[in-house]
Specification:
The protein is an alpha/beta fold. The protein is 20% helix and 35% strand. The strands form 2 sheets. A 4-stranded mixed β-sheet has the order 4-7-6-5, covered by helices on one side. A 3-stranded mixed β-sheet has the order 1-3-2, covered by helices on one side. Strand 5 and strand 6 form a beta hairpin. The longest helix has 13 residues.
């Protein structure tokens, strides 16, 4: 039997419409499934065959009790791109959790989406 295909990320959110608007701006693409209300499910089709799903945490079964428990990572080619992304996201009003920092694995910063999920951008060392 072959290994299972990992190609979905599902985040539990408080307000699906708000999160869909946030990720649409962040990713530069509209969702392929538009949320009709704050409790609807929505999803984005991303390059490389990945899908990002946003599901209202009060609608998922079994219930999700903790908001903001995931981290999405975005790999950039250079430290200059990491620095520019930081400035762009900061100017867009995205909440920053960590400034641009040199870590063991490379240059990085961490931001947060409206539900507190971490958004890490880095350029590998």
């Amino acid at each position: 039997m072959s290994p299972p295909a990992l190609n979905w990320v599902l985040l539990y959110v408080a307000d699906t419409r708000r999160s869909a608007a946030f990720y649409s701006r962040l990713l530069g693409v509209p969702p392929v499934v538009e949320p009709k209300s704050a409790t609807d499910f929505t999803m984005f089709s991303l390059p490389g065959g990945w899908t990002l799903g946003l599901w209202n945490r009060n609608e998922v079964e079994p219930r999700a009790t903790l908001p903001g428990g995931a981290e999405l990572s975005f790999t950039e080619a250079t430290g200059d791109v990491v620095r520019q992304r930081f400035e762009d996201w900061k100017a867009a009003g995205i909440r920053m959790l960590q400034p641009v920092t040199q870590a063991d694995f490379g240059l990085t910063f961490t931001a947060a989406d409206p539900d507190g999920h971490r958004l890490r951008v880095f350029s590998p060392s």
